[in-house]
């Protein structure tokens, strides 16, 4: 694929977002850790603390994080198909895993499935909006728009 100025601009935009957004997502995760639930309670899918009758939910969350981390490692190594598989496994265990949707969306776009990537970014934004994290949701929407522009300009 031959890249013109617009193509290079798109790649630079994606690189910028891939560098900046992880810092944003890390800030979100740290903020969530700081607002931890009281002892004996866990955060449910809507972000609320509730009693944990079983450790099953916590275990699923831990496994989801492990799959996500494996996905990140594959992504860094340039093994995007393997990364997609791991991100999908993380999402299956935790359907509200914003970071997994974000990175899977990027990987899908880069692997020639930009519309599916947009869908993942929309899901991430919707989760963040539901949680009241509007600035982070806006960042997701902005990244979604970058991919849309790339589609319109024939870059994908």
Note down, in words, how this protein is organized.
The longest helix is centred in the N-terminal third of the chain and has 30 residues, at 5-34. The chain has 6 helices and 2 strands; from the N terminus they run αββααααα. It has helices at 5-34, 56-76, 80-93, 98-110, 114-130, 134-152; strands at 41-43, 49-51. 29% of the residues are buried. The protein has a two-stranded antiparallel ribbon with strand order 1-2. The termini are close together. It is mainly alpha-helical. It has a domain at 55-156: Serine Threonine Protein Phosphatase 5, Tetratricopeptide repeat, CATH 1.25.40.10. 73% of the residues lie in helices and 4% in strands.
Concise overview:
73% of the residues lie in helices and 4% in strands. With 156 residues, it is mainly alpha-helical. The protein has a domain of 102 residues: Tetratricopeptide repeat domain (Serine Threonine Protein Phosphatase 5, Tetratricopeptide repeat, Alpha Horseshoe).
CATH topology of the domain at 55-156: Serine Threonine Protein Phosphatase 5, Tetratricopeptide repeat
Structural class: mainly alpha
* Shape type: flat
Following the backbone from N to C, one meets helices and strands in this order, namely: HEEHHHHH
Cα separation of the termini:
9 Å
Mind summarizing the main beta sheet?
Answer: 2 strands, antiparallel
The stretches of 5 or more residues where confidence is low (pLDDT under 50) are 1-5, 30-36
Average pLDDT, to the nearest integer? 77
Total beta strands: 2
